[in-house]
Design goal:
Blueprint: H1 3-20, H2 32-42, E1 50-58, E2 62-70, H3 76-90, E3 98-106, E4 109-113, H4 119-135, E5 140-144, E6 147-153, H5 156-167, E7 172-178, E8 184-189, H6 193-204, E9 209-216, E10 219-227, H7 233-244, E11 252-258, E12 269-274, H8 283-286, H9 288-291, H10 294-307
Helix pairs in contact: 2-3, 3-4, 4-5
Length: 311
């Protein structure tokens, strides 16, 4: 047996042995004491309705510390005190661990931070999130850093208006996935009502059904549309492309699919970077023959030749 083989075999044996023993860790310091302290001290703080602590440090699941703090009725001072106690206990103790703390402020709304939450920031986010959630009671809302995600939300006009009021100028990347008809949105805030109105008018005038729209720094970056009739797809998509007003400085990734098409089999679908030239991100764009019908591949090639910047 060579030295290299003995080394590999020894490592495999070590991993196999650790898989059978509960005492094998990832090499990170044991923080069981701190996890127990979190359970004991944070769970009894005013405003905490429930606390779940998920601590692991083993080969199977990795080194993780996760807290779910249920604070539906907590006041802002109580939120700050809770976040401060968590930070006091965890500060510097979980370096190298995957860390997450969730503050659930309702059945469908939560703020997510690291294991050392900033008390003032968390309290401010909770206040804003409660305002947004009260205006959109059916939506599931998560706020993680600069990302604010809404699922099962009302139509975009209603959801974006509630977000605009709640954020009050606070920067955020907002995703609105609607529960009803109408496109889902992904947009950087601040995003004014006038910007929204102009864009909505632009999208309404398109001869295709818009299902998703994304903006970056106020400019369209991605639009997903549905086409009804493959025979008219080129004319409809070419008209839509002209109406998007893409430029080399602000290209638009246009993706399309046939409305009502079932999930099985090859699809009438495709994509084009209008006024831009980037590698296709979709699996169909990378290997169209496996996913798209021959007429869809032909349409995709024609649109890319005419409207992309790739030469």
């Amino acid at each position: 047996m060579t030295a290299r083989f003995r080394l590999v075999a020894g490592f495999v044996g070590l991993v196999t042995g650790c898989a059978l023993l509960s005492g094998c860790t990832t090499g990170r310091p044991d923080r069981t004491e701190q996890a127990e302290r979190l359970k004991a001290e944070v769970s009894v703080l005013p405003g905490v309705a429930r606390l779940d602590v998920n601590y692991t440090n083993d080969f199977e699941t990795g080194a993780r510390i996760g807290l779910s703090v249920y604070v539906p009725a907590a006041t802002e001072p109580q939120i700050m005190a809770i976040a401060q106690r968590i930070t006091d206990i965890t500060r510097g103790q979980f370096d190298g661990y995957q860390q997450k703390t969730e503050f659930a402020v309702g059945n469908r709304a939560e703020v997510t931070t690291g294991a050392e939450p900033d008390p003032r920031q968390v309290a401010e986010q909770v206040r804003r999130l409660r305002q947004i959630s009260s205006a959109l009671p059916t939506a599931e809302i998560t706020w993680n850093g600069r990302k604010l995600d809404l699922r099962d939300a009302p139509v975009a006009a209603v959801s974006l208006a509630a977000v605009r009021t709640g954020l009050a100028g606070e920067p955020a990347r907002v995703t609105v996935l609607t529960q009803d008809a109408g496109p889902s949105w992904e947009v950087d805030f601040p995003f004014t009502a006038e910007q929204e109105r102009q864009l909505a008018e632009q999208l309404t005038a398109l001869p295709v059904e818009v299902s998703f729209v994304a903006l970056e720094k106020g400019f369209l970056s991605h639009v997903n549309v549905g086409v009804r009739d493959p025979a008219k797809a080129y004319a409809d998509l070419a008209t839509a492309i002209a109406a998007l007003h893409a430029t080399p400085a602000h290209p638009v990734h246009l993706t399309w699919h046939r409305d009502g098409e079932k999930d099985n089999g090859l699809k009438f679908a495709g994509d084009v970077y209008v006024a831009g030239c980037e590698d296709p991100r979709t699996t169909g764009g990378q290997d169209p023959g496996k996913y798209y019908t021959p007429d869809a591949i032909e349409l995709q090639g024609r649109l890319r030749a005419e409207f992309s910047a790739c030469r």
